[in-house]
Amino acid sequence: MQVTTLMLRSPDEVDEYRMEFLQHHKTQLRHDDALVPYWQQFTSALESYDGDLGFGCIELHSSVIDMLGPALATCITSLSLHDVGRGWIDLAIGVIGANSSLKYLSCSANPSRMERAFDLFSSVADHPTLSDLTIHKICSDGAEGYSLFVLAKICLLDGDSGSSKAYRLNFSSNSMTSNGATHIADAITTNSSILKELDLTNNHLTDSDAQAIGQALRNNTTLERLCMQDNELTKVGVAAIHDAVISPGCTFQAILNSEHMVSIDLPYAIGKLCPDFRRKYCYNNELKKQRKICYIFASRHGYGTNYQLLCEELGDLSTKLLPFGMKRVFDCSYKYYAGRVGKLIWCSEEQHVPPLSIAHEILRSWEVTKQEY
Question: Which CATH class name applies to 2-301?
Fold first, then answer.
């Protein structure tokens, strides 16, 4: 703790500091009154800190929380509370109410405090900038985990606060089960303008939940990411979500016209059946559309239907010529460039001509406007 205090008081800039003890994360360092003087020094130094702060595997006693509260009402933009004891929610609510600069809050592996959950979500809703919220591994009971999500939905998504915040919500590892209820699907259906990411990883959601979520996705074209790994989904549930974004019989043109840009993470044991259109390198809509086309090829490869699809889109003759044309273009542009009399001349690596964009030619043949691709 003394080292932490010295670092905070250092003239060097520190963007992030994590106060994590016992890094194996299996044993919490319990409170000891002998540490109080060091906590006082730490909180005093913290008042001038404006980076990201995380506490992990150390009990935050009520006396410590009383000291931390005023110190955290500064310019920190991110706060993580991992395995810090029952006082976590009181500290979180206090910081949210006092710090107008907070943008990210993560609470994980802390005891459930359902009696104060409504107060927590209400304070998040009223905050001007806090929109990235992680509530991870708080509930061990399925009904309690689902109730936690319902409270968040009521406070953050269903209210009419007039705020323009777009939420990124993580409710992973809360043993959540819906028992056929539809609040998760409703959150996706009716909050397309303010819900950008939803992480439901490692819960107990079933195929019936997946089917409801799939129907909800049909009416939501602004959700950027949905995480559903490590739930109790079979291939039926996975297909229900997958087909909502890309139906089995869709054509390339239908894919390009689709406004869905969602990245969906599904159980890896079943297979990565949904495309991830928002990973790195997908900086714009053109790249996302190209990935959609590649995904259609890949997903139909195992069924042997790519040739039939291309015939329908391009015509039988064009389809037969396409492989030869693509091979020639890539062969000629990799290690050679055209000489003065049209001969192919070997060139060094820095002189390589980039391959022509087959995707561009196909898009032109479909009369897609420049603005669209």
Answer: alpha beta
